[in-house]
Inverse folding.
């Protein structure tokens, strides 16, 4: 099973993705986690990505695509995966479709969109910043990330809707109730 998790930053994709990993036994591929790890490790990729991330911008397509393709080629991703943070625009979704074909893997089964209001996102991310000490979660940066999401990533909803793969669920409520809703629609 190949699942794309969609939703604004702070919508719960990471939390639900981890629960889906445990439930389905397939890896979660999070470009955000991979980029933060590269920044922390001080790798060349991390250095290139850090300035953009600190300003709330999106890291260059070729860096993100390279991370995803490398990860999809690993043995544990052959039976499926949960994509969190990729694709982030229609061009990347088209590249992903081509990438899966090139790797001899089936296409995306479902795109699960967790809908959460912008104000709830701001509240969640400010809370997370305090709890986790995340430097990229300042209110102005959060609002910029939401604006970028709305401009660049929301068109993915139409992309997957046109393929009959989109499911939109409310991302507000208990983690367990949201998870149960996701599992129900995935079958």
């Amino acid at each position: 099973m190949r699942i794309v998790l969609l939703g604004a930053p702070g919508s719960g994709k990471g939390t639900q993705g981890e629960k889906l990993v445990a439930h389905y036994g397939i890896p979660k591929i999070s470009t955000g986690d991979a980029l933060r790890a590269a920044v922390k490790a001080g790798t060349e990729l991390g250095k290139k990505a850090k300035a953009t991330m600190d300003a709330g911008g999106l890291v260059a397509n070729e860096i993100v695509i390279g991370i995803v393709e490398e990860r999809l080629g690993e043995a544990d991703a052959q039976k499926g995966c949960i994509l969190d943070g990729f694709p982030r625009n229609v061009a990347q979704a088209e590249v992903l479709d081509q990438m899966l074909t090139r790797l001899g893997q089936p296409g995306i089964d479902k795109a699960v969109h967790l809908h959460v209001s912008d104000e709830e996102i701001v509240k969640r991310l400010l809370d997370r910043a305090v709890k986790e000490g995340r430097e990229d979660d300042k209110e102005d940066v959060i609002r910029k990330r939401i604006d970028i999401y709305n401009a660049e990533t929301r068109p993915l909803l139409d992309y997957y809707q046109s393929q009959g793969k989109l499911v939109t669920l409310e991302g507000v409520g208990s983690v367990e109730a949201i998870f149960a809703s996701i599992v129900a629609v995935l079958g």
User: Anything to note?
Assistant: The longest helix spans residues 118-132. The radius of gyration is 16 Å. The mean pLDDT is 90. Residues 16 and 176 are 9 Å apart (CA to CA).
